[in-house]
Amino acid sequence: MHIPLRFGSRLAMTLLLSFPPALAVPSAATASPTVQQQIAAQLAAAPGGVRINATEVAYDGGRFVVSFQPSVTAGLTADCPNGWFCFYDEINYGYPRGRLSDCGFQDLGDWGWRNRVESTYYNLTTGSVAYLDRANPSVVLFAVGTGFRGLAKVAYPNIADYVMRTC
């Protein structure tokens, strides 16, 4: 049965107020199945991680964190939290995102992150980080730090195997 709704009618207003509009952006608490599949793949590729919420996996007591979905407030710019340097699996800071804060040499392969860096951002108050390739670890592929914080597209994508942070 078709009931014509006229502007201002009580039935139309009742129907509009009874059904709230759907949210266009899923919340982090209700991650999509794709995110769940990415988390499962991450844990299979780099065992030892612990799921810390619906969209993140942490390693080594939180020393390294992988995020699979940006927060609702994230835009098209880097959303690297304060106190970390971040690297992203896509250009223009696209997810998934890995983040570290430790000083010194670190093997990204420990967390299944070799050959995955396409953009990076440095959000610490001191130092810098150099990205290196295992084929020639004495040559810096690209670097970011307090003087030059971000690269939306790195010079050598999907080649970095190690990072060396100078504090």
Number of helices: 2
- Topology pattern, helix = H, strand = E: HHEEEEEEEEEEE
In whole angstroms, the N-to-C terminal distance is 71 Å
Helix content percent band: 10-25%
Mean pLDDT: 84
Overview of the structural elements:
With 167 residues, this protein is an alpha+beta fold. Helix content is 13%, strand content 32%. The protein has helices at residues 10-18, 33-45, and strands at 50-53, 56-59, 64-67, 84-90, 94-100, 104-107, 119-123, 128-132, 140-145, 150-151, 162-166. The strands form two sheets. It has a seven-stranded antiparallel sheet with strand order 1-2-3-5-4-7-10, with helices on one face. Strand 4 and strand 5 form a beta hairpin. The longest helix is centred in the first third of the chain and has 13 residues, at 33-45. It is globular.
Q: In short, what is this structure?
A:
Helices cover 13% and strands 32% of the residues. By secondary structure, it is of the alpha+beta class.
